[in-house]
Amino acid sequence: MIKMENAIDIKLKELKKVLLENKFLISVAESCTGGLVSKTITDIPGSSNYFVGGVVTYQNTAKEKILNIPIDLINKFTAVSEPVAKEMAQSVRKLYCSDFSISTTGYAGPHLMNSNEPTGLVFIGISSKKGVKVYKEFFYGNRNQIRIKVTEKAIEYLINYINNEILERSFVCQKTL
């Protein structure tokens, strides 16, 4: 029986290739995905050549103590917000001295305790020395399906972000020659 590659396997091979070719290092700060992004990346043999580390900061106190996210920021915007996703991505990149980082924060469900926000609302942050981009997404499905979709989308966003930076560097180098 021939095993077919699924979409995430193809994305992970692309990620590995671009990271190794450019000697880039990555790190991850996770909340709603509970370590799934880190696990998915490290499932690939050789990932220790580019994956520095990750943290799961599920509760607000962990975000505050491990990633130094100001509790005032969390209280003002909630842990599931663009500003918190941005801070998580920047902080984990600095913590691990990586070139790029991913952050995930959201509501995977099945229900919310103290929020009017819908299950499936997620913010994915991608950070580099150049800046941070945060994406707001809505995913549908059960808890596990949402976490898998967030993981796949985060990896896709990271690949696109890295490729755009490489293209910009290439363009700048060509213009200066």
From TrEMBL:
<protein>
    <submittedName>
        <fullName>Competence/damage-inducible protein CinA</fullName>
    </submittedName>
</protein>
<dbReference type="InterPro" id="IPR036653">
    <property type="entry name" value="CinA-like_C"/>
</dbReference>
<feature type="domain" description="CinA C-terminal">
    <location>
        <begin position="13"/>
        <end position="161"/>
    </location>
</feature>
<dbReference type="Pfam" id="PF02464">
    <property type="entry name" value="CinA"/>
</dbReference>
<dbReference type="InterPro" id="IPR008136">
    <property type="entry name" value="CinA_C"/>
</dbReference>
